[in-house]
Design a protein that fits this description.
The chain is mainly alpha-helical. It has one domain. α1 runs parallel beside α17, α9 packs across α11 and α10 packs antiparallel against α11. It is globular and about 50 Å long. It comes from Streptomyces litmocidini. This is SalK. It holds the Pfam family HTH_67.
Length: 288
Amino acid sequence: MKTALPPHAGRRCHNALNPMHSALYFSPDLDREFTALGFTDQNAMRLAARSAALGAVGAGTVAATFYNYSHAFLSGHLPAVWETASPAEVLDARLRTADATLRRLLGDDVLASPEMAEAAELALRATEACTRHARPLYSANADLPVPEQPHLAYWHAATLLREHRGDGHLSALLAVGLDPVEALASHTATGKGMSPRWVLGTRGWRRADWEAARERLRERGILDAEGELTESGTALRAELEEHTDRLDSAPYEHLGAAGVERLTELGRGFLVAAVGAGAFPADLLGKG
């Protein structure tokens, strides 16, 4: 009989695994692999890398599934990116990028360690309880084969768990009534989201869009005059995460309390090493 999970155990596990997927988007290895395919724009590389599992999709599909990107911005890249490389070619380059990135950040010894093999096995076991309905990014990635090498299997499983939670998170955003820019601005106000510079540079919104969203959040009592979360805003963000937790509970309940605890421990160890090796820009997160 499995022991009930402690509060927020699934969220903590997600927070340990998710960055090991997203490190790919900030990796110089991505630039190298995708430049070799003919890409010249970093935003096009990132959009192609994340959306390729969906096929040769256009801006509309990506706007719906990514949620917080400007459709006009996406239209400047999609579907044109598929003239540079096919989704299959992009997926191959994405996996090569993951391999090179993990080797650079963690080292070959860690990748070949029993701990990495254990983490891959636990993460893949958790994905057995993921569900496909209303989860397009998860479901598309779940159609891809599981890589044989443990570190790539771990990265693949982290991708599945990330997109499974992310797809559910979009439902939660709709439920609490946050539009794409409001979602970004309120997350940034927590201090845990991307800084405005990174949001505007990678999501395609204008500064005017950002300020208009912040004004709407003030009118709703979510932000105060200084742009900080109010008590109501803090409660709304907490409600949002609790809703997301409920929609994302199945993989972690399936893995069980002991498995979740161990996977979180292993994932945090890999993450600390990766961050220490420079996996992310120093100014990525924050309110400024």
